[in-house]
Amino acid sequence: MKLHSDTSSSALNTITAYGDGYIEVNRVRYDSALAFGPEGSVAVWPVDRVEDIDAAALEQAAGLGAEPPEVLLIGTGARQRFLPAALLRPLLRAGVGVEMMDSQAAARTYNILMSEGRRVVIALLLD
């Protein structure tokens, strides 16, 4: 799926495509799970499956911005999956909203929030 961005936000990390087994950020193709925010580097997220997500993985993803994100989007692959509430509690206590959705929906949502200037970070699993 091609995701087009506004050219005025070209300096920001934008998801430009998503498909079976890959994610494209700023027209660079990646074949592993990623975590990133609008600014800064695109980091490989050391998670292959939803079951692999632990507190350390969430902390790594949420810590990618200059300041804590308003929202951490978690793309859970081909279908929406939910994480245990106990795992999310520390982020919620810190004021970080956490949303889980399938990875294509997360990619679209990230691009919208990022283009609005929101402090958003995405952690995206491949299908």
Automatic annotation (TrEMBL):
Domain of life: Bacteria
SUPFAM superfamilies attached to this UniProt entry: MTH938-like
InterPro entries: MTH938-like_sf (IPR036748), NDUFAF3/AAMDC (IPR007523)
Protein name as catalogued: Mth938-like domain-containing protein
Origin species: Pigmentiphaga soli
